[in-house]
Amino acid sequence: MEIVLSLAIGIVAGSGIYLILRPRTFQVIVGLSLLSYAVNLFIFCMGRLRVGTPPLIAPLSTSSAFYTDPVPQALVLTAIVIGFATTALFLVVLLVARGLNGNDHVDGHEPDNVG
């Protein structure tokens, strides 16, 4: 299961990096979103996921093997909310830039056709 999860995180992160390097603004925004989702998934999986266990230490157990760490879950939840707000801001900037320039290239003008 760890191999599948690692491959999924790697594929999502690689796709995000590929899209960040594209010349269109919308592709850059989608790439940033994918990269943030990959980081969130990585942080969430590093929190020792346990099925059916409480997120806090039980009063009788002193071992950390019997609980799930709540900090990565809280960090990922906060990052998701901030990611939605950032994506909404990027989309508004995209629409304004497209209205001013007439295209959605990152540098603001269409490249010359190179044959």
From TrEMBL:
Family classification: Belongs to the CPA3 antiporters (TC 2.A.63) subunit C family.
| Alphabetized Gene3D superfamilies for the sequence | 1.10.287.3510
* Protein name from the UniProt record: Na+/H+ antiporter subunit C
Q: How does it sit in the membrane?
A: Multi-pass membrane protein
Q: What's in the keyword line of the UniProt record?
A: Cell membrane, Membrane, Transmembrane, Transmembrane helix
Q: Name one Pfam family in it.
A: Oxidored_q2
Q: Which InterPro entries match?
A: CPA3_antiporter_subunitC (IPR050601), NUOK/Mnh_C1-like (IPR039428)
**Which cell locations does it reside in?**
Cell membrane
Q: So where does this one cross the membrane?
A: 6-21, 28-51, 71-97
